[in-house]
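As a warm-up, study this chain.
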Amino acid sequence: MNSIDLAILGFLIEKEKHGYEIYKIVSDESGFGAIYSIKIGRLYSILNKLEESNLVHSRLDTTGVRPPKKVYRITKEGEHQFKNWLVTPEKHGRDLRINLLMKLFFLEELPKICDKDVLANQINECQEWLERISKEIKNLRNDENTQFIVKEFRKSQIEGYINWLKWCKRRINHD
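Now compare it with the structure written out below.
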């Protein structure tokens, strides 16, 4: 499962929903849609994949005069996978840009379900990255100028991630 598949599970944590209802939430550009864009066909493909994996179940809702709608609900295994995804830190800086922002969305939307350790776990992971790259920089020879420049760039990125994560943690803990 990739991160968007697991994120879709989060929209079913509090109550069951039909596909278009999920799509409206996912595509809302003042919320999740500001982080990730998804077409409705891809959403239904993901829902089918989640159902095949027994992470969601569906049923046909035949109430009312409208045609039947497929309604999805998360399974216990789906809930477990979603919560595990939330607290697992991203292993690469490139994944912070989307995956961590998706996790922060749920941290705000589902405060009773989402553990604020999401940020602490990611800060710890980034601290490990920083320690590793700092050691690599110390071990460079004086004539390895290009590697030094690249590693210093990466080090400054990681320091920026850590500062931003700490800012997020302060902001969320004050709300």
